[in-house]
Write a structure and sequence with these properties.
The complex is a heterodimer.
Chain A: H1 2-19, E1 38-49, E2 56-66, E3 70-77, E4 81-85, E5 89-94, E6 97-103, H2 108-121, H3 126-129, E7 132-138, E8 143-149, H4 152-155, E9 160-165, E10 169-175, E11 181-193
Chain B: H1 2-40, E1 44-45, H2 59-73, E2 75-82, H3 85-100, E3 105-109, H4 112-115, H5 119-127, H6 135-142, H7 146-158, H8 169-172, H9 177-182, E4 191-194, E5 197-201, E6 206-214, H10 221-236, E7 243-248, H11 250-284, H12 287-312, E8 315-316, H13 317-328, H14 331-341, H15 347-370, H16 378-405, H17 416-424, H18 435-451, H19 469-481, E9 489-495, H20 498-517, E10 523-525, H21 527-530, H22 534-559, H23 565-577, H24 583-588, E11 599-603, E12 606-614, H25 619-630, E13 635-639, H26 640-674, H27 678-700, H28 705-727, H29 732-748, H30 758-777
Parallel strand pairs in B: 1-8
Antiparallel strand pairs in B: 2-6, 2-7, 3-6, 4-5, 5-6, 9-12, 9-13, 10-12, 11-12
Classes of the chains: A alpha+beta, B alpha+beta.
């Protein structure tokens, strides 16, 4: 689970960072502040190219992000799964049944994930730059960011991570040490007013 | 008469020179041997265990204790705490960085990366993934809850943060069992990783952990200086800040002990040396007297060290400490000689007159000390040889060298101080024995003897602890907070084969698991938690078979992966199946680095291991654990505090017995010479010892080993006093010598009563009380002039 948490920390920080990244040139972007009354929603398609088999695993779903509940990542196909992550816990559900729960207070790395997560939310670049070198360039289509690990720990998470975007991020590509490649394409990202979940 | 005597002396001059040269040669040879031995190194023993008898100490327990001690001795745990998180964090980082650069530090772990799995250990856990199946996943399979495992694996595969689930796992370990096994392993509740740092949040404070592995011996002063110096510097930088520092590890106590010893050496040690030097200089008014009194002590220590090291190879530190104090008694011989010389015209005559008393005194003391050699305790045996040879050498130095060294006429002058000392003599005396005095004496003896039955033993192991209470409490607190197993009690498991051993451990483990749930213990650690028995490993593989049969097809089809992967996954399972984890492989792998102490190995045709416990010191828990172990012939519950205290008690009882035997032997020897007058010689030291024991019993709450060792010294000095006084008919110079000897002993050992080290304090207290009382009673034994009965000449 350690490795798992390390990875999802980094990837999630990246996702969050880029989701909030408006068009920028060679300078790391200033992130817009997500207020308590807003939330970000959108759809995604994830394509995972496996190193060992000539197969691409494709999954689709939607996500929601706000300061109250954290991230809610919902995969709709080919399997139904939900993932919730915030400063206190990581929980995942399958068909409304909880399959995984990690308490940030007892699971060291979940707490770390949460911390970096918050750092990314508040536009604190130093959290990610502790792990990665960043190279930013402008392309005809928009912008391109390449991140390479600074140390061995980060290298166990990814060999490289690439971002492409226009006004919002369009695509994240993760090059894993195993040789697998995960590409996440984002669609119809938008900001909307935050609505508290109804309590029954 | 006089001219004849002088003539006789002159003829004996050449012989005296011959003897002196001979003794010089002996000393030179022994010094060379000692030098060679010291040059070879490895001569000092500091292990407490070395003092305990081998045959009494169960070798298995001994090995277990050695394992635990070795582990404890190389670790230093530091918690930096504060109500201000960032403050604590800053200081922890600074300390970690400082320690990292020290030569005597093997490893510092304070950042996330330091605690992460190494590639080697990941490979290890991946190889044995099925055999090491964790309990909760195993439960899910046995409870037919395999769907949950499948869903979890599917999520890991599809979630972007399911990272770590690489395509390589799809057939090797589709349900990511290796990751499941590691999840939650070796984590400490409350311990979190806060942005690269290891943090422990409690209700009021945040603590950051710095974990140090020491390179070298924690008793090495250089190691202490570097590491503890750095920690102290860090502490000093926060004197005005709200930062709490908690440390745990043997090195902390070793450094504290060394510092305490240094401090006391420079106060108590220097004070007593200065006092003795002043006393001698003021009495004899010449520097030469000072060198002369020191000479027998130095040569005594030299010979004792040389002989002990040649006989025992390694001499224990405690032998040195106590042996040297006992040899210090030999200052008496020099004092008696110098006092006697002050009233004699010639040096040879002085020796001739003094020789019978000197030899008898030496003989009784040497007998008393060497009696310890018969005890089964290696520590006492060493001490017996050390003090007996030391005393013999000191005595011989006086006999062989003093007549030549004090040949000058100026040595014959009664110092004015003698008159002053004579005035100090209490006026009481028990000159004539009447029926009334006899009745009083007998009554007194009975009262004293009877009251000795009220003495209690006080053998708490804390006597041997030199660290202040606060430091020990810190140690316990850190160990509790970090759930480190304590070293106070543990379980020993015995079996014929390794497999049987692991199965037996698993039997205990199931019960310990319940105790942990009941909160009777915080945690436990056992070999079988790292290497399950072959039986358990087979069961685990069987469960994986069951899981595959039930879920694999569905997993692949839901993921949209081809069916043929099922066959591949099964062949991976079959290939892994035969690779059972053995204790040997575990021991040779880096993953066992922190837990190898649990394996005790083969001893007397059996195989042993130990199970450590965390927070198992509560009396109720101890009872439960004892009961649990008593159910099985192959399990033993060991409480180190109990065993060590029992051992100390044994030492004390043996010592008491030998003190009594020594007194009896000395009395028999003296009866041969003094006949019925013997009571006048032995009564003062016996009464002094008894009264001292009674006083100590009420002051310290009981008698311990160190009081008894001190009494041996009191008896040695006390009997010498009696012999010399009696032989010299309580002359003025002899009284001066006796008083000086009592005062020097009090300065040398009585001052130890001020020490904060419990062992030294108790020893000093007993000497202080015993000797002062003996010295006060001695004048009571004087005869009236002309009343002294004839005595059998000795050594003539």
């Amino acid at each position: 689970m350690r490795l798992l948490s390390e990875r999802f920390t980094a990837i999630y920080s990246l996702i969050l960072m880029v989701l909030f990244t408006p068009l920028f040139a060679t300078e790391p972007p200033k992130l817009p502040t997500l207020t308590e009354s807003d939330q970000l929603i959108g759809n995604f398609i994830q394509k995972k190219k496996l190193a060992t088999f000539p197969i691409e695993l494709v999954s689709k779903g939607h996500f929601k992000l706000n300061l109250h509940e954290g991230v809610h990542w919902v995969t709709e196909s080919p399997i139904a799964s939900e993932l919730k992550l915030n400063a206190t816990a990581l929980q995942s559900y399958s068909n409304e049944r909880q399959v995984l729960s990690m308490d940030a207070r007892t699971q060291p790395l979940v707490a770390m994930v949460a911390e970096i997560f918050t750092a990314a939310l508040s536009g604190d670049w130093s959290a990610l730059e502790a792990f990665f070198h960043t190279k930013t360039s402008v392309t005809p289509q928009g912008w391109h960011v390449e991140m390479t690990p600074r140390d061995k720990a980060a290298a166990r998470i990814a060999n490289a991570i690439h971002f492409d975007g226009e006004q919002f991020v369009k695509q994240i590509t993760l090059y894993e040490p195993s040789g697998d490649q995960t590409r996440i394409l984002f669609e119809s990202i938008q900001l909307e007013p935050y609505r508290a979940p109804s309590r029954h | 008469m006089l001219p004849a005597a002088t003539e006789k002396v002159t003829t004996s001059q050449p012989r005296q020179k011959y003897i002196a040269v001979l003794w010089g040669v002996v000393l030179a040879i022994l010094s060379t041997l000692l030098g060679l031995r010291l040059y070879a190194g490895n001569t000092i023993d500091t292990s407490l265990m070395a003092l305990f008898p081998h045959q009494q100490q169960n070798p298995v327990i001994q090995r277990a204790e050695q394992n635990l001690a070795a582990r404890y001795s190389q670790r230093l745990l530091i918690l930096v705490g504060s109500t201000d998180d960032s403050l604590a964090r800053r200081h922890a980082i600074a300390l970690g960085q400082t320690l990292q650069n020290l030569a005597r530090v093997d490893q510092v772990s304070w950042q996330l990366g330091d605690f992460a799995e190494s590639p080697a250990s990941s490979a290890f856990f991946s190889r044995y993934r099925f055999h090491l199946l964790n309990a909760s996943t195993a439960q899910e399979i046995t409870q037919e809850n395999t769907g949950l495992i499948r869903d979890r694996a599917l999520q890991a595969l599809f979630n972007p943060i399911g990272g770590g689930y690489s395509s390589a796992l799809l057939t090797r370990d589709p349900f990511a069992i290796a990751q499941q096994n590691l999840a939650g392993k070796s984590h400490i509740p409350g311990l979190t990783f806060d942005g690269q740092m290891v943090k422990l949040a409690n209700h009021q404070k945040t603590y950051y952990l710095v974990f140090v592995t020491i390179k070298g011996d924690p008793y090495d002063l250089d190691v202490q200086h570097q590491i503890i110096g750095a920690v102290d510097q860090a502490k000093a930088s926060t004197t005005n800040a709200p930062v709490e520092w908690l440390t745990a590890g043997l090195i902390v106590h070793a450094a504290q002990g060394a510092r305490q010893a240094q401090r006391e050496m420079s106060t108590i040690g220097a004070g007593s040396l200065l006092g003795i030097a002043l006393l001698i200089l003021l009495t004899f008014r010449r520097m030469a007297a000072l060198w002369l009194t020191l000479l027998p002590i130095v040569s005594g220590c030299l010979v004792a060290t040389a002989v002990s090291m040649l006989v025992f190879q390694k001499v224990h530190l405690i032998t040195f400490a106590f042996g040297a104090t006992i040899i210090g008694v030999s200052i008496d011989y020099a004092l008696h000689y110098l006092c006697a010389r002050s009233s004699q015209a010639c040096a040879a005559e002085t020796l001739k007159r003094l020789l019978p008393s000197l030899l008898l005194g030496m003989m009784t003391s040497i007998l008393a000390y060497s009696a310890q050699a018969i005890t089964p305790f290696p520590g006492l045996k060493q001490m017996a040889l050390f003090s007996a040879t030391g005393l013999l050498a000191a005595g011989l130095t006086v006999i062989c060298w003093f007549p030549l060294l004090t040949g000058g006429q100026h040595w014959q002058s009664s110092p004015p101080a003698f008159i002053l000392i004579a005035r100090l003599r209490p006026k009481w005396r028990l000159a004539r024995i009447t029926p009334v005095t006899t009745a009083w004496l007998v009554l007194g003896c009975f009262a004293l003897g009877g009251s000795l039955f009220f003495l209690r033993g006080q053998d708490d192991i804390r006597l041997l602890q030199t660290s202040p209470k606060a430091l020990i409490e810190q140690d316990i607190k850190v160990q509790q907070v970090l759930r480190q197993s304590g070293t106070r009690s543990f379980l020993l498991v015995k079996a014929d084969t390794i497999e049987q051993l692991l199965q037996r451990e698993e039997t205990l483990s199931r019960q310990l698991f319940i105790l942990r749930q009941q909160n009777l213990i915080h945690a436990y650690d056992a070999l079988s938690l790292y290497v399950p028995s072959a039986q358990k490993q087979k069961e685990n593989v069987q469960l994986i078979h069951q899981l595959y049969a039930q879920e694999l097809d569905q997993f692949y089809s839901q993921a949209g992966l081809p069916d043929q992967l099922t066959n591949e996954a099964f062949s991976y399972l079959k290939a892994a199946e035969s690779q059972m984890l053995t204790v040997d492989e575990w021991l040779n792998s880096p993953v066992s680095a922190h837990n190898r102490h649990l394996w005790l190995g083969q001893l007397d045709d059996h195989t042993y291991s130990l199970i450590t416990l965390t927070n198992a010191d509560a009396p109720a828990t101890q009872t439960v654990l004892k009961q649990m172990a008593s159910k099985y012939a192959w399990a033993t519950f060991v409480n180190r505090v109990d065993t060590l205290s029992a051992l100390l008690g044994n030492y004390r009882k043996h010592m008491t017995l030998w003190v009594l035997i020594a007194v009896a032997v000395a009395t028999v020897i003296m009866v041969l010479r003094y006949r019925s007058a013997v009571w006048r010689i032995i009564t003062p030291s016996l009464m002094g010892s008894c009264v001292a024991l009674l006083l100590i019993n009420s002051i310290a709450g009981g008698i311990n080993l160190f009081h008894m060792m001190a009494l041996l010294l009191v008896l040695g000095v006390g009997l010498d006093m009696g012999i010399f006084l009696h032989d010299a008919s309580h002359r003025k110079e002899t009284w001066a010598a006796v008083t000086l000897s009592a005062l020097t002993s009090l300065l040398a050992f009585g001052l130890l009563a001020l020490s904060t080290t419990p062992v030294l304090h108790h020893f000093g207290l007993a000497v202080l009380l015993g000797l002062s009382i003996t010295w006060l009673i001695t004048p009571l034994m004087r005869y009236e002039a002309g009343m002294k009965p004839p005595q059998k000449e000795f050594m003539k």
